[in-house]
Amino acid sequence: MGKIIKQNKEGLYRVQNTVSDEYYFDGKWVTEDEVKKLFIEERIWKFLESVAEVEIEFLLGYQVNEKLVTKMEGKEHFSGWWLQKQKEGTIEKDIYDVVKKLVDKYDLKEYFEPLTEE
After folding, report:
1. CA–CA separation, 66 and 99 (whole Å)
2. Taking the CB of residue 56, how many other CB atoms lie within 10 A of it?
3. Other C-beta atoms within 10 Å of 81: how many?
4. What is the pLDDT of residues 6-47, one digit of tens each?
5. Burial class of residue 30 (count of CB atoms within 10 Å of its CB; 0-12, 13-18, 19+)
6. pTM of this structure
């Protein structure tokens, strides 16, 4: 998914989605920092989704004993899980829930807590 970024004479930006033609920020001209925040938030979501994906579909898509694993009892492909949660309207909550469980399960707090400490 791409973006068209335009800058006006005042140094403000307008961002448009190249797939849907929709404008971010309701088509308003915004500051550089607002655009950067948008891009950072998108990357955070990609990261969280990739963390959840490991838990949901491991070993699917990996080669094990020189054989590609395409089906496993009790496992589903992340894309199918993601689409179902999107249809249910719970994708954000469900991704957060999976990641929070993994932080505890695999003792990953050292990677997350320093980001929120003051």
Report:
1. 30
2. 19
3. 19
4. 999 999 999 999 999 999 999 999 999 999 999 999 999 999
5. middle
6. 0.82
